[in-house]
What we know:
Number of helices: 17
Order of helices and strands: HHHHHHHHHHHHHHHHEEEH
CATH class: Mainly Alpha
CATH architecture: Orthogonal Bundle
Number of domains: 1
Distance between the termini: 31 Å
Largest sheet: 3 strands, antiparallel
Strand order of the largest sheet: 1-2-3
Number of strands: 3
Radius of gyration: 19 Å
Strand content: under 5%
Amino acid sequence: MKDRSAALAVRFLTGVVPRASGELRRLRAFARRIADPAMAREALSSLQHKAFHVHGGCVFAMFLAPKHASAFIKLVAPFQTAVDYIDNLCDRIGGTDEADFRALHESLMDAITPGAPLRDYFCKRPNDDSGYLASLVRASQAGFAALPSYKAVQAEVSDVTQRYCELQALKHLAPGERERRCSVAFANVAPGMAWWEGAAACGSTIATFALAFAAAARRVESERAQRLFEAYFPYFTGLHILLDYFVDQQEDRDHAELNFIACYPSAVAAGSGMARIALIAKERVAGLDDADVHQFALRAMCGYYCTRPAVRTPNLRPTSSAVMQAAGLEIDRKTDLPKIGDGRVRPLLDLYARVSRV
């Protein structure tokens, strides 16, 4: 795996990311047609600032034949964009109405259900978004329907999505209430997981895309779908969101948003908690038949988040390094950055910056 990692990273950056960015540019043209200025702002903001979520979800396209890879990217782009756009709407517009949050997230359940009739996702708001969210739902439905073995993984995709929607309905409530509700709802996600770790595990879409990858190119038995689900949830998914929050700590403080890293009793506890979860995630994916695919996804995810400028500060860098090592990345002692194959990660990060523009 180590010998191939650099070549895989370059292939991802030059072959997958530009195609995903092309899909996002197409979606941006639709977002510009939204009549409501505030909703248009959030739609465009999600496309600009959260494009890396789409790029990350598309990592599995590298391991598919060109025909399947193209269809996979066209699935990930609208679905993940819908996820990020709704998150922006809940964060930035509309207060703390749980019924509104639930209505908006009905769109995601419809998106994973080919043929499902669309609902009025803005029924709790004075304005809609000129059909933008509906267009993302329809594009997602078409993408899931095109997966050759989608029926074999649909139950697991539904499980992941239901958990996500429940988290989103609760985490955007008023301060105090959101912590109380989440601490009850996510207290028993897995033995040994604190409620905020369990909540984080429910906040990721990476398992959805791993399941879609499995359904994209070959016949999938229900047993394999369950093994894949258990390899990703709750540790891989939990690590994903904890790392996302690890990077966003200052931003979330500025906006008074719930951040699961802040729920740990100390920075040391946060670091050890993430490293423990990363280690279990690594062990879980190692047991899969196509472990190399999922190990690459795990390492790429950790390498990306743990090299963001926000966590390269002197007080956060040791935690970043510990998490990367727990996930299986080799760290350069001089720079505290991961080594990819025989080289260093910095040229790859610079390449990503060049090819990822939407």
